[in-house]
């Protein structure tokens, strides 16, 4: 922290630094090895305030410090205990004074069964620990028993990575949907031998907000815009007048689809939703059969308060706009009497949004079933965004678990000298612990319920997150620590119960020890070809045998250039046209060409490029042949690469300059490619043959 004249102070003895450390707030960070920067004192004060700690004055700091240290000295239990299977509760209490002989331990299992005495044979699950010391004091804390590891892939295999909205078929309503996903899975599994399909986050979006799937309204419920309306069973029983109206909507949907596929216009998800919601309003007039009604009631009971909150926010957003922070004051609190009254007034709309969530859940289940029936293991791999939109449903319903006035981001680094602010409110680590990680575990359970696997965006956030106070630049943020043992433990428990694999997106700045901790718990990493270099040596491309095995290996991602664009240098030209380069074009082109030349030279030395460097399609095959030489357990093909697409789905650093998250998959000439055309692509089959042959060697 800086002093009055900006000089660094001794953080180890400064009261504010001690208080920050006790609260898990780092007062310095290391943007590059050996280079340590202090966090501004004003940032530390703001972050502590978001954690409910007053540090605005020296007196307040001393009082907060004394109170915190007193609690640590006198408490019998921490807010929450997370134990690995086979560990006794005492093993997670090293920071507490030794509990005296005669302390009574009682564990209430999640089943309601009572166990007395300290034991190391507790079953997995969410339990409650009670202790009573001889002097009479007692304490209660959540006790979560978790497995050592997350189950990994059954066998080495390959699969596809795709942004679902970009995959239109001849039945889509202007964007890819869950019917397309089920069809893709059935074809890819049966005809191509693929083992998985990784999709973008399918979380519920904020109406009218930017289309990024990584800034959702809710991570707990999927977006009904992905519904295949005609696959809803009640659609077949529309009465004549409603069927006629539905036919009109279908015709308009076909026009939307043709606008994208034939006229090459960007995807307009808001227009798609207007048509789908109108059609779904018609479908809802058809009564559910007794069996379907019973299934719907079970869904309502199973999803409980979370679904009620989500549907209530959705209904109120129709009346007051999608930003709950601008609603009438009484409605900004989901538990207020005003909100309870408003909910009864819009009960039919609340039920409509509950019904949409049920339908979407059902079609997600059908997609995973289609994948499993096609022999896919693990099947559909869903993506979990790192946070939620500050004006959306989760930010409203989970406000007590989120830090007010804070945003997740990233500190300055070599790629972003000004840092990043993602405008996503972070979890409060203290609130998570106090609730036994209930919001976090419920989130995981909801995402995993219809998944064969889960990719977690920015998985380093389970260890620490860069908090940026509102109104301050990202350079003036601070890292806040989370209990990684607890976060990983709850993840392991939920993945174990769902039988899913977990992949962590661990690209970029990764704190020492994080990748090792993830590997220990069975979380696969993410290895992208262009980033895999000998960073501790000469910086040359990393030979395939030196890659890690516990990873999903890919050539590119949704945030990076397509492989064809990278190999040809077209991505540099694109960034130049959009004014994104910070150096002269010639310099950028020369550096990019040198990097590609290094990779091509390695591919030639390994005998992976028999077609020669002038064959673009051959070079795309070659980099995938390279991936198969690595020990990676999962090998992913960016689906647009299979048809020569030139365009990234998202171009970081742009907003209106580029149609992020709105592009259909296209061929090398920029012509959109439908799912039906994809299934007939000779280029795709040639690439897949190379991958399958490599796996079988």
UniProtKB/TrEMBL annotation:
Task: Please state the Enzyme Commission number of this protein.
Answer: 2.4.1.25
List the GO molecular function terms: 4-alpha-glucanotransferase activity
Q: Which Pfam families match?
A: Glyco_hydro_77 (PF02446), MalQ_N (PF21226)
UniProt cross-references to PANTHER family, sorted A to Z: 4-ALPHA-GLUCANOTRANSFERASE DPE1, CHLOROPLASTIC/AMYLOPLASTIC (PTHR32438), 4-ALPHA-GLUCANOTRANSFERASE DPE1, CHLOROPLASTIC_AMYLOPLASTIC (PTHR32438:SF5)
Alphabetical UniProt keywords:
Carbohydrate metabolism, Glycosyltransferase, Transferase
Top enzyme class, one word, equals transferase
Q: Which SUPFAM superfamilies match?
A: (Trans)glycosidases
Which InterPro entries does the UniProt entry name for this protein?
A: GH, Glyco_hydro_77, MalQ_N
Q: Which organism is the protein's source?
A: Streptantibioticus ferralitis
Q: What is this protein called?
A: 4-alpha-glucanotransferase
Superkingdom field: Bacteria
Domain named MalQ N-terminal beta-sandwich is located at: 77-147
**What does the record give as the reaction this protein catalyses?**
Transfers a segment of a (1->4)-alpha-D-glucan to a new position in an acceptor, which may be glucose or a (1->4)-alpha-D-glucan
Family according to the record: Belongs to the disproportionating enzyme family.
Q: Which gene encodes it?
A: malQ
